TrEMBL record:
Transmembrane segments: none annotated. InterPro entries: AAA+_ATPase, P-loop_NTPase, Sigma_54_int, Sigma_54_int_dom_ATP-bd_1, Sigma_54_int_dom_ATP-bd_2. One of its GO terms (biological process) is regulation of DNA-templated transcription. Signal peptide: none annotated. This is Sigma-54 factor interaction domain-containing protein. Residues 181-341 form the Sigma-54 factor interaction domain. Keywords: ATP-binding, DNA-binding, Nucleotide-binding. Residues 387-412 are annotated as: Disordered.
Length: 437
């Protein structure tokens, strides 16, 4: 029965012509000299001159029939090109033969990528023996202790099934950046899933929630999962800055713009250029600062205090507040146009990121859990005759007095009063917006 040896022509084989004392006869000649093979199919991506010189040298040593297949690879490590050419040559060789021969693939000549392709072909499309050769051990068979079709393809198909399930459910790709957000409920899983989706787009995000519920943690996860993750994320607590300095902090100032401005200074918008700007407690912004902030969102440019020239900036805004901005707008404490820009972009026109008209999605998690401490307080009040408001009269989801503010990263922070106290963990009014593509 015919035994065909398929092999790439390697650099060591070419060196064997002149340096046999150093490198030996080379892997190809070493295998052919064993006399085990009735035909050699030699794949060569070297020049015609080098290939012909090697053929003349090899034919002087051995009378085994040789067929040379010249190919042109853009790189000796290009797996796609190597696989495509090797598969084509094997298929054409087998088609030209009247009876199927035994196949052998030589792993030693060529690059590691070429050896890897031989293994893949031998374990899948063209079952074959694998050999290697060396000066010390000669030519010997290589045992690969697995069957790719049985061991790996089921796992590949299973991953495809999982991916299809994810796409059918409309879930975004997994994002390690959100692993730090500890959660258990299905509601929080949907919140994190929406955060993962919105993270992929450079659009404004507004997070509303009580203090200590992890708004900044969520904002950082969105930034780390976004295309801007390699760029800076600048965090500013708007509530911790004096009202007369907030504009200078956000937009910067020129030298002499006000008393004490001894030099020019860039603001956080410039510092966060091409990155993300996280504005915590945005509800604390003064009305004048809101006007300038609105222009930055609309035009994508800012003007330093005391300057006449505007500066273009590319900043993704993530804002957070412990207030309900819709209520702030109703009370005329927050500008309606800025609210529409940050929380509902599109209703007031297009933002610098060309947002389309898409209604915001709001997610609020309310979970009822036992609270022994709250129950004990209630019982003590009843025993003292102080009385207490029945649970039925409580407003679902409203804020309750508690013995301590819930801490960030608490899995189940509780607002304690009754046995089944309302828990907001976090109480987040989450609004996401998409470009609609």
């Amino acid at each position: 029965m015919d035994r065909l040896l398929f092999s790439w022509l390697g650099r060591t084989d070419l060196r064997a012509i002149e340096e046999a004392d150093t490198v030996g006869t080379g892997p190809v000649a070493q295998a052919v000299d064993t006399g085990r093979f009735s035909h050699l199919a030699l794949i060569c991506d070297y020049s015609a001159t080098e290939a012909q010189a090697y053929l003349d040298w090899l034919r002087q040593r051995n009378q085994t029939p040789i067929t040379v297949h010249s190919v042109k690879l853009d790189s000796p490590t290009n797996f796609d090109a190597i696989y495509r050419e090797a598969r084509r040559i094997i298929a054409e060789t087998l088609k030209a033969r009247s009876s199927p021969p035994e196949l052998t693939f030589h792993l030693s000549p060529g690059t590691p990528a070429m050896a890897a392709v031989w293994i893949i072909l031998a374990k899948t499309r063209f079952p074959a023996e694998l050999i290697e050769s060396s000066i010390r051990y000669g030519v010997r068979s290589v045992s690969i202790p697995f069957q790719m079709a049985a061991d790996f393809i089921p796992d590949l198909l299973r991953r495809s099934d999982d991916e299809l399930t994810r796409l059918t459910a409309g879930l975004p790709p997994a994002a390690p950046a959100f692993d730090a957000i500890i959660h258990r409920s299905a509601v929080m899983q949907r919140v994190v899933a929406r955060a993962r989706r919105v993270a992929l787009r450079s659009i404004p995000v507004l997070i509303e929630g009580d203090s200590g519920t992890g708004k900044e943690l969520l904002a950082r996860a969105i930034h780390q999962a976004s295309p801007r993750c390699e760029r800076p994320m600048v965090t500013v607590n708007c509530g911790a800055i004096a009202a007369d300095l907030i504009e200078s902090e956000l937009f910067g100032h020129e030298k002499g713009a006000f008393t004490g401005a001894i030099s020019a200074r860039q603001g956080v918008f410039e510092a966060a250029d091409t990155g993300t700007l996280f504005l915590d407690e945005i509800g604390e912004l003064s009305k004048p600062a809101q006007v300038r902030f609105l222009r930055a969102l609309q035009e994508g440019e800012i003007t330093r205090v005391g300057a006449t020239r505007s500066i273009r900036v590319d900043v993704r805004i993530i804002a957070a507040t412990n207030r309900s901005l819709s209520q702030e707008v109703s009370s005329s404490r927050f500008r309606a146009r800025l609210w529409l820009r940050q929380a509902k972009p599109g209703r007031g026109g297009r933002t610098p990121h060309d947002l389309s008209n898409r209604k915001p999605l709001t997610v609020t998690r309310r979970v009822k859990v036992p609270n022994r401490k709250g129950l004990a307080i209630h019982r003590n009040r009843v025993l003292r005759g102080a009385g207490a408001t029945p649970p039925a009269k409580r407003t679902q989801g409203a804020a309750r007095p508690c013995d301590g503010a819930p801490k960030e990263n608490d899995v189940e922070p509780t607002l304690s009063k009754w046995r089944k106290a309302t828990v907001i963990a976090p109480k987040v009014a989450w609004r996401e917006h998409s470009t609609g593509v």
